[in-house]
Fold FHA domain-containing protein.
Amino acid sequence: MSIPTPPMINLKATADSFHFPEKFIFLQGAEYPPTILGLQSHPTHSQLASRRALPTNGYFGQTVSSLRSTVSPIALGANHAQVWTASDQIFIEDTDSSFGTFINDERLDSGTPRALKTGDILRLGIQLTRSSDTPENVTDEQLRPIIAKVIL
């Protein structure tokens, strides 16, 4: 007798992504809240201080930049998108993020679910462009979005 395995989404960073460790996120059934994809913490939201990025959840943490400082992706929101399972499929939905959620370079309308499939490229945010207004302490890494190959 085998024990059923809950649905899982595997997110593997692409070369152009803000760096993050590979994620293996097990999703609970429809009776549970969706899993949030977003920043581990946010400097202006103290209630998010308890969130911790792990390879098994949807939170993305800081990484050490080429300048040896810890940085987070600017284009990623604290509650950027959410994923869940229903009807034997895994769905994603943008949660009115500032810089958008994209599947295979197609921007999702906020609040409109989209089924994911293996091989999809998920992008949370956009590549931000450095300008004369960009503070000097902002690294190139921080300007990158989260980009991941989806494996179900």
In short: The chain has one domain: 8-151. The chain has a mean pLDDT of 89.
